[in-house]
Indole-3-acetate O-methyltransferase 1 (Cucumis melo), 385 residues
Amino acid sequence: MTPKGDNVVVSNMKLERMLSMKGGKGETSYANNSQAQAQHARSMLHLLKETLDGVHLNSPEVPFVVVDLGCSCGSNTIYIVDVIIKHIIKRFEALAVDPPEFTVFFSDLPGNDFNTLFQLLPPLATYGGSMEECLAADNHRSYFAAGVPGSFYRRLFPARSIDVFHSAFSLHWLSQVPETVVDGRSMAYNRGRVFIHGANEAAAEAYRKQFQTDLAEFLWARAQELKRGGSMFLVCLGRTSLDPTDQGGAGLLFGTHFQDAWDDLVQEGLISNEKRDSFNIPVYAPSLQDFKEVVEADGSFSINKLEVFKGGSPLVVNQPDDAAEVGRALANSCRSVSGVLVDAHIGDRLSEELFYRVERRATNHAKDLLEKLQFFHIVASLSLA
């Protein structure tokens, strides 16, 4: 029998190699279904800039290094990086000091569609290699760019090499589904469900522990990589309820029509109960307390700001009264973030059937979705202690 520890490693590595937002530029791609994330990020720019104001500015002879962790493959990451760099440039200019050169690392799991992301990058304006001329050029980027594939739950960069870490809408993705959740012999077995919203207490506790273990690994790695005087700005799905089985907006996204669509496939004989139960979305929306406990226990970081922020709906529709558009938006949104995992679990044909049912059910509940589907985010600004 394979040792239990080895199972955990294989599960972890398998998810790490597989997980990604849906690539390309098609209707169900992340690039075309991340407008809500863009709106939510823009609503938090004042908090991001507060964090940037606290970053220590080193000599302009030393490149300023920014990392976006969980960059995915749309234009949102490019927009945020541009905001960060322009704000830092203004700070240097306020000191009457020429800005340094900038390096940006876009990081995500190996399965991420880096090709689509890099195609969206504006050209680098070098004009003979002068960064001053580069910074003044319109429709060009003012930074050197590179992609870094790998899990942010491990080290990714040399020690004391990064000035600013930014991560938005990523830390709620776990490194793995807790092993006990898909173990039929365990009290935490999430029978009949594909997410922890409404699950039993043991399953929810397994998810909570996995989140806190992962976050501790994340903080340990960043504590090695961040420069003294650097800062992190982190945003992930959060919840206002103390009960981890109430996942709020994430629960409505993955625990209602998505869950019912899986049940449809079972009832129609297209998949077995066991096939459904062996699939779980590796997402956990923490409470403020869940997050704070880990940061304080780790001890590497001082908390500059830690709050729950009302983000709004993940659905962006042109015609709110058009139930079909609302249903399609929910299905596409759900598919853009979970479609790769679903495809791998049940195959492309059944995945198509599943999301067709998600769309149909969401269309029938369009008014309710628009009224109730609301995301909250944990926003954290951290500096080395």
